[in-house]
Amino acid sequence: MTAGIRLLKWHHVHSAALGVTFALLAFVTLDTLTVTRYHKVAKSLLRRSEFNFDDAALEGHPRVRDEHLQQLQNIKLLVWVMTQPDNHQTKAVHVRDTWGKRVDKLLFMSTKEDASIPTIKLNTNESRTFLWAKFKRAFKYVHQHYINDYDWFIRADDDTYLVVENLRYMLSLYDPEFPIHFGQRYTSSNPEGYMTGGAGFVISRAALRKFVEEALPDPQKCRASDIGEDDDVEVGRCLTNVGVVAGDSRDELGRGRFFYQPPADQLSYALQGNKSWEWPHSFYPPKLGPDWLSSTAISFHHLRPDQIDEMDYLLYHVRPFGVELEQPFPPVLPPDIRTVPMQVIEKFGTWT
């Protein structure tokens, strides 16, 4: 091999090495600048956000403030979670550390005081037989201490997941001074049916007043005995007896937003159609397939602790690159205008 050929090869190798080095330096420099720039932009956006999420979630999801978001944040939510001593450290903590951070007030109702959660001790027995007693005492406690401080009051289980932003969104056109309640509506002997407790039971301030002040003291309107497993069925009957409206929580396409089962199970039931156990219990005609589940879903029930953490991760941290969420959000109003109180229509106008 001649010296000229060896020199030429060395020149090519040297040039290639320089090129790779330059490319690496450029990539690192640009990447560093991109990350630095992103953090500056993200921090500027976060400073303008009125949402009080944890730092980790904010780093993953910087939010731009707008007028509608400000209005939604002004809706004051109190959630009380039904739990029990065996579940304090295995279930309740997962609710507390995920979606529970996004409500204005979070209470845990139990039969044992636990400062580490913390929980509120209710004077009743811990068994399914006394679920009705536990429910009544919990709402009496909330009424006594918080009736004037919050707009909406929600009962959830320690294995429920709530998408709090979607709940605020659904409630944004409703007046909390009108007696109304929402949830996943099932049929019962009560003509208005009832809202399943585990899927999340939402009651307005006016409805809470009527429940505690009018229904509970009257044995003709509400069961006086503490014995009862079906607390959600009982409260549905009580509220109907004092004129509280059973609201339609479905979205603009008639799809459900509160669910008694985890997402995978609900999708499975939707595909099973009338073979599903849930089909005959649904107050509204169920829809086949994914059309049963709204894109603005609010709650899912019967989740394991790891599934609650998984839901939080998928909703608030995972971001598909290049995918932008549809804006504006789907209409807030339920499809049945008859479930919207007249005073709300007069206050906000009519919708098409």
Describe this structure in words.
- By secondary structure, the chain is α/β, with parallel strands linked by helices.
- The chain has eleven helices and eleven strands.
- It has helices spanning 3-48, 55-60, 67-73, 88-97, 131-146, 164-171, 205-215, 231-241, 263-272, 305-316, 342-348, and strands at 77-82, 105-110, 120-121, 152-157, 161-162, 180-182, 185-186, 194-195, 201-204, 245-246, 299-300.
- The strands form three sheets. It has a seven-stranded mixed beta sheet with strand order 3-2-1-4-9-6-10. Strands 5-11 form a two-stranded antiparallel ribbon.
- Helix 4 links the parallel strand 1 (77-82) and strand 2.
- Helix 4 runs parallel beside helix 10 (305-316) and helix 7 crosses helix 8 (231-241).
- The longest helix has 46 residues, at 3-48.
- Mean pLDDT is 78; it is low at 1-65 and 348-352.
- Keywords: Disulfide bond, Glycoprotein, Glycosyltransferase, Manganese, Membrane, Metal-binding, Nucleotide-binding, Signal-anchor, Transferase, Transmembrane, Transmembrane helix.
- It is a single-pass type II membrane protein.
- Residues 74-243 form the Fringe-like glycosyltransferase domain.
- Its EC number is 2.4.1.122.
